[in-house]
Amino acid sequence: GEFSTLMHSMEEQIADKKYTDAMDTARNVYAHLLTQLYPKQDILNGNEALKIFALDIKFRRFLRFKRLLDSAPDPQNLLFIHHFLCDLYLSLKEL
């Protein structure tokens, strides 16, 4: 679906050293996961931190992800962002 298409695009952008584009795609992936794949019946309010807690994701990893997502593009940071997005996707699939 859309998640795999976006992730594939992000991976290609990283390989092509288009780091700014990869960061934009990462933001789109994150938005897609929380707005389209997060179960609507499990949303208490729009607070994304509550969604992360519900998925049992380590909060420090989430904070690092958010900080990196808002920072300047860096290949090493993109690797962490990619892994976090994969973990988030897998956590959503376990609900």
Report on the biggest sheet. none
SSE pattern, N- to C-terminal: HHHHH
Question: How many beta-strand segments?
Answer: 0
What sort of overall outline do the alpha carbons produce when their principal axes are compared? globular
Hey, roughly how much beta strand do the residues contain? under 5%
Average pLDDT score: 88
Give your account of this protein's structure.
- With 95 residues, the protein is mostly helical.
- Helix content is 74%, strand content 0%.
- It has 5 helices and no strands.
- The chain has helices at residues 2-15, 19-37, 48-54, 59-69, 75-93.
- Helix 1 runs antiparallel to helix 5 and helix 4 (59-69) crosses helix 5.
- The longest helix is centred in the N-terminal third of the chain and has 19 residues, at 19-37.
- The chain is globular and about 35 Å long.
- It starts with a helix and ends with a helix.
- The model has no long low-confidence stretch (mean pLDDT 88).
Helices and strands in order:
Elements: H1 2-15, H2 19-37, H3 48-54, H4 59-69, H5 75-93
